[in-house]
Amino acid sequence: MENKEKQPLVQVKHLCKYFKVGRHAELKAVDDVTFDIYKGETVGLVGESGCGKSTTGRCMIRLYEPTKGEVFYDGKDITKLSKAEQKKFCQKVQMIFQNPYASLNSRMTVREIVGEGLKQHGTPKKEIEKRVQELLETVGLNKDHMSRFPHEFSGGQRQRIGIARALSVDPEFIICDEPISALDVSIQAQVINMLKDLQEQRGLTYLFVAHDLSVVKYISDRVIVMYLGMVVEEAETEELYSNPQHPYTKALLSAIPEADPDKAKANRRIPIKGEIPSPINPKACCRFAERCEYATERCFKEVPELREVCPGHKVACHLMDEK
Ligand SMILES: Nc1ncnc2c1ncn2[C@@H]1O[C@H](COP(=O)(O)OP(=O)(O)OP(=O)(O)O)[C@@H](O)[C@H]1O
């Protein structure tokens, strides 16, 4: 069945998260972001550092309250859940964090870290012990190391502990917030492949937040590109990488290192001029305009709407009107 005929598992609608800075200024970390995620898929959320990826993820799990807009999970507004529904939501939706050093409590043993969620959900002690052992085996860790503390593990192993903790409550949807960017390159592929396998075995749905476009290409079914708090492009992975439309996406993709020297020669790297501007009190225009080599007068006056240019492929760029 095509995605369009199904009900999305997650719906993010006109989501805004503004942080007050000083007396009169607002930092628009996320500004009118809308997208859907369907059951069983992996959606990649990409963009340069500071474009609002993590803030979007945090709003989706209620670590941040949105300034405006809504997030629906399984058709329900996550800010309007009953106590029982809230408990279920906390179980069904989990997050894996970027920094496996900061995200694990250094005073807790692996047994306590991985078993915490199970304890909160009323699982008997004996059962917790067995489940923690199974979970450690699932993520490729030695079950005899349950009494050890996080500092006794390497970065990759700690991220595996974080993944075991997320899996412990049998989630449906996991927000993976840059899960491999703090790890050695040699370990990154192992963790990514493990996430892929777990998805297949457990029918998981992922939002995969990252700035590494090669990794996102490898793991995602669809990709959403953000720039300075807004979505500039969204498409199925193959379509996005082979037929990017937004000048920002084109520039980002042109910067991916190419292993094949012939292809590398043929691919022109598109430079992005200037620095990423401040998200504080941004002007009501295309946020990319001042760095875009194709910008016209209109781009400096009007916010482009995110519109479908062909089935499943959305772009927020005034240049699309001229095509
Ligand atoms: N709690 C906060 N208070 C004030 N500003 C914040 C807060 N959290 C994030 N920001 C700002 O919001 C913007 C978006 O940050 P966010 O972490 O969501 O971006 P990101 O794309 O995930 O970047 P990174 O890849 O570096 O984590 C940045 O300008 C950041 O400084």
TrEMBL record:
Annotated keywords: ATP-binding, Nucleotide-binding, Transport
DNA-binding recorded as keyword: no
Listed GO MF terms: ATP binding; ATP hydrolysis activity
Record SUPFAM superfamilies: P-loop containing nucleoside triphosphate hydrolases
Superkingdom of the source species: Bacteria
Positions of the ABC transporter domain: 10-253
Organism lineage string: Bacteria, Bacillati, Bacillota, Clostridia, Lachnospirales
Protein name, entry field: ABC transporter ATP-binding protein
